Amino acid sequence: MQVIICDNAQQVAENAAHWVSELINNKSNPVLGLATGSTPISLYQQLVAKHQAGKLSFANTTTFNLDEYQNIAADNAQSYRYFMNENLFDHVDINKNNTFLPTCTQAQNPREQGLAYEAKIKAAGGVDLQILGIGANGHIGFNEPTSSLASRTRIKTLTQQTLTDNSRLFKPDEEQPTLAMTMGIATILDARYVLLMATGKGKAKAVKDMVTGGVSAMCPASALQMHENAIVLLDKEAASELSDHNYYLWADKENNKVNQEFGLFHNF
Ligand code: F6R
């Protein structure tokens, strides 16, 4: 795991945007894995700004989102499709036919939908770079604690903590879905690179468990310890429960020398 401690949340977003731009500018048909939630919004703002400045084109990019609520219409403001349109897709030159989310209506069989999503990712050549946030309970995607580390795209029941954490996003008269389709942990681990962003004190314990705890289904993000190319971008608050800050800061400087010589994605 490459742990990068940034001065603040803005730097986390800028750093993440640099990774995404390097991928898109250096690969002919990049495949990007995307996340929703509060954390990546500033990343998407950076990407939109780069696009508007003529420095980034999404014309050849394919995207796969981590998750989507079950049985939610694309034009429902709470859907993750709507979120992606609002925060990224509507503002860049991406072909929306090449943007995918793991949808599942009431009438559809979640198992079949999950298998179809996995097949679609494979057919696109696999995810090159997967963007991740982390839940306060250590979840990635909607892989809640106890999720199998070998899981694939499937339907999940959200935990009470996740429902409470996300309730801030729902108006009192809006129904909050309790079921979601999510890429599994094994699906996420298949990505060539994963980049997890975490900001704020509320994520500090989950970050500590992910980076220095044992690999456990109780902290799904700890599975990233098994990934060959996992980058963890933190602000100081999210990193506040980690010891060894000096090592991470020093290692980042040394890694930068290698990256400058061989490129960010030298492990492709
Ligand atoms: C979103 C997702 C979730 C979030 C996580 C953190 O697609 O898969 O795992 O990344 O819940 O959410 P925020 O960023 O809102 O704290």
Note the main attributes of this structure.
globular, 10 strands, alpha/beta, 268 residues, binds fructose -6-phosphate, 3-stranded antiparallel β-sheet, 7-stranded parallel β-sheet, Rossmann fold
Structure description:
With 268 residues, the chain is α/β, with parallel strands linked by helices. The protein has one domain: Rossmann fold (3-Layer(aba) Sandwich), CATH 3.40.50. The protein has eight helices and ten strands. The protein has helices at residues 9-26, 41-52, 80-87, 110-123, 160-166, 185-189, 204-212, 245-262; strands spanning 2-5, 31-34, 62-65, 67-69, 99-100, 129-132, 154-157, 179-182, 193-198, 230-234. Strands 1-10-9-6-2-3-5 form a seven-stranded parallel β-sheet, sandwiched between helices. The longest helix is centred in the N-terminal third of the chain and has 18 residues, at 9-26. The chain is globular. Bound molecules: fructose -6-phosphate. Fructose -6-phosphate binds next to loops.
Question: Main sheet: which strands, in order across?
Answer: 1-10-9-6-2-3-5
Secondary structure category: alpha/beta
Distance between the termini: 16 Å
CATH class: Alpha Beta
Helix content: 25-40%
